[in-house]
Automatic annotation (TrEMBL):
This is Protein kinase. The lineage of its organism: Bacteria, Pseudomonadati, Myxococcota, Polyangia, Polyangiales. GO terms for molecular function: ATP binding; protein serine/threonine kinase activity. Its EC number is 2.7.11.1. Residues 1-266 form the Protein kinase domain. It comes from the Bacteria. It comes from Sorangium cellulosum (strain So ce56). SUPFAM superfamilies: Protein kinase-like (PK-like) (SSF56112). The keyword ATP-binding applies. Pfam families: Pkinase (PF00069). Keywords: ATP-binding, Kinase, Nucleotide-binding, Transferase.
Amino acid sequence: MRIEATIRYTKIRQIATNDAFCSEVFLIDEPQLGNAMVAKEVEKPHFRLPTSDFFNEARIMFSSACPNVVPIQYACETEDRICLVMPYYRNGSLADRIKVDPISPREAVRVGIGILSGLASIHDKGLIHFDVKPSNVLFSDTDEPMVADFGQARRVDANGTSAVPPVYMFGEAPEFATMKIGTVLSDLYHVGLLLYRAINGDRFYVGQIPRNESEIARLTAAGKLPDRSAFMPHVPKRMRTIIRRALAVDPARRYQSAPEFSSELAKTVVDLDWVTTSQPDGTTTWKATRPDRTDLVVELVQRGSFCDVCVWTDNNGSKRAKDPSSFKRNGISRPEAEAHLKRVFENL
């Protein structure tokens, strides 16, 4: 017996759009479930698929249900659109959190483990996400990282591969340019890139991207974008090693599964969890809270073409310079300041 039902919701405001894929995302008032939710609307002509395949994204989300995957509430259609309704998460996305400053190393470990938990569930279903990036990681009401947006997800064939769908230009894995196919290891590369961006801050990464699209593809395929030798000075050595392995150009040299990658992250011990704050005047401050001890603060001050570096302890607002002869430098060049900061963080 076929039943056709009427579903109504009211659009409150648009919160995202993707012109390339003819989709829009709205915050909605959903009276059937009695809550604010999110509706993703995709124009049917975009699909170029049989009608039976219009709900592929909804089916993938439903089958991949786990605590680190955004759940789907329901899917429906109008004459010209497919509509997917999901929870609204007020804590925003990872892209929001790293737009200016990075998240702390300990938070990067937590977020990475959560994302990899979601991907493990997706991969177990024989799927590749193909679009893991900061804007597709949302935070639940309990601040749990959740993988979102399955519009580019594909099922693997008997060889564990899939043709590459249209993807985000700045997130292409190196093998996309050479082999035109992807595997679950492509998703793990994307997690490595996401962690690189998260632990350094997006401005650090975006500053490396050339304007020419062909140059982006060339540098990515050569393993030079992002620059694996360049990290913010506070990033722990172990995190650098983990991220570099995830970003290996040769998929065989990456972590071979989401659980393996997650296990390596879980072994990371962050002694000083530096929180980074940058100011419009070029000043950057790193602060690490130490239980039962005074906080540590490192500051880089830009003064024209010269820099000052200082380190102090902070006890409830009472500041005291820490070993000025070793850590303090005034009037040095930017390259000298960056080299000195590297030594500072290695010795704190």
